[in-house]
Design a protein that fits this description.
The complex is a heterodimer.
Chain A lengths: L1 H15 L13 H35 L2 E2 L7 E2 L3 H8 L1 H33 L4 H9 L6 H12 L4 H8 L13 H25 L4 H9 L4 H12 L1 H17 L2 H8 L12 H7 L11 H25 L8
Antiparallel strand pairs in A: 1-2
Helix pairs in contact in A: 1-2, 4-8, 4-11, 4-13, 5-8, 6-12, 8-11, 11-14, 13-14
Chain B lengths: L11 H26 L4 H6 L11 H8 L3 H31 L4 H15 L2 H14 L6 H25 L4 H8 L4 H12 L1 H16 L3 H6 L8 H15 L3 H32 L4
Helix pairs in contact in B: 1-13, 3-13, 4-7, 4-10, 4-12, 5-7, 7-10, 8-9, 10-13, 12-13
The chains are: A mainly alpha, B mainly alpha.
Chain lengths: 323, 282
Amino acid sequence: MALSLESRSASRRDTRRPAGPRPVRGGHSPLARRQRRIFGPFLAIPLMLYLVLFIGPTLYSVYAAFTKWDGINSPTWRGTDNFTALVDDPLFQEAFWNTLLILVVVGLGIFVLAFSFMLLLRDMKGKGFVRGVIFLPHIVSPIVLAIFWGFLLRHDGLLNALIVKLGGEPVAWIGPDSAFLMIMIAMVWISTGFYVAILMAGVDRIPAYFYEDASLAGASAWQKLRHITLPLSWDVISVAAVLWTISSVKVFEFIYAFGASQGTMPPTYEWNAAVFVYGVTFGGQTPQYRFGYACASAVVMLLLVSGMVAILRRAMRRDAVQF
Amino acid sequence: MATSTTSRPKVLRPLGSTAVWLFVAFCLFAFVFMLMSSFKNSSEILNTPWSLPTSLDFGNWGRAWTDSGFGEAAVNTVLLVVTASVVVVGVSAPAAYALSRRTGRLSGGITMLFVIGLGIPLQVIVLPLYSVLAELGLIDSLFGLFLVYVATHLPFTVFLLTGFFRSLPNELEEAAALDGVSATGTFFRIMLPLARGGLVTALLLNAIGLWNETLLGLMFIQSTEKYTLSLALIGFIQQQQYSGADYGALFAGVSITIIPMLLLYLWLGRRITEGLTAGLGK
């Protein structure tokens, strides 16, 4: 399939654009012809796998959002009923709100922390070591981190043990009012190191003589930040913002494992949208298998991500500074 | 370096450095605590969480490995991670090369299609995927999970490798063509060896991601003998509510899960951080 599409578009382009001053790659050179021949065979397998097991399911999910479906029998059309039901569902409202909290509040927390760390680390001793250690949470399973977080905060846990030793009263960290806040703090802890690494990779490319020139001209640290660091790392910051938007909506494992130690599913005040999908299908003692409903909620989140990414890209667009 | 000047408020910097070092200390503590607790028993972990283990007793490890199924899970995980990351890089590399060498509308469109996949949250695809796998009889099958792992990691791998192949100069192929090497031969004998660095990075990043993967396993695997390490950990936590707590074995299981990643990170840390961040800096 890929092959036939390919040759069609190639021939169309050839008739429309007779030989002109094009780069060698797309033109009529023998080299381009050779590379056109391997294009189909090289792409066939991955493209097929991707279409069948990724793009196909995505499109089907959008369709299933408008149906009643249990995953086994074929779906029956119900129009927009799933979406109106979602709006009225307190469980989904909670999950949606929690997702937004992770996206915005945790995102800002990570950004502020990562940006300050990056500024501090630029001229700090042992910055390689620091950068290496704070990246650690990113390479281990969120399940493991959730187990640790649970041990830290449970009633007879590490933090309370320390408080008692210092003569205080144990605190109920994991209650209905505070549990989600604790999850949010954990998210900041887990992700900061990763974003420090990204920001530093961007900032490290800024040539040192910019700062030397600025110092000679008598610029203050604030002016250097404002006129050198910020504009020249803007690209990286905007990529990081998009990346966080995408990954914040995917957060699942940590919440699931953190909450599931008290039952088969986390308490509903800890749910986010991804946990919601699992909760109304496979999760819990008596699974509900509401596939269509869950697909509708997933589609809402997909729209949220696309919207946010579009807004971010528009809002953060600047003329690229070449250096 | 050049940014430190005297005009910055003098209190801010020491305060900030202290915060950074506290953060570092907390990260280190978390890992030391988990590894240390794998040598303690439940009451020691709860009553004297801050103290060192009294002996280097591997009893917890033995119980976790055999009785709690972490051994079996480790074998499954290694098998899945190795095959899936090798296959995903193997099929992505030719695709990425082909995409990097053409500038037409079709190639641009396919590249875009893979990029879109980066932004689609997994919860969007898991349910239809479940019925596809059910149709194929691949629910509760490690091969089914392997297929899903490959498919879900294609977008990232193709994206990463396309960028990498783009950075290799075009002149190499021209020279190869003049020497009469076929296009396929050029790819396998010239471009692939040159791209070794990128391939290793892609392999490494996929392996780490797959080692820690949980959601897909949770959805598609049911029987305990097919559990991956993440699933075994979840199963262990949930079982404890009924069978009583054996925190020593839990942390032995945790250690089995994290130690391979920690070793990999100690060995190839720079490559991992750079791989994860380099493609984004552009």
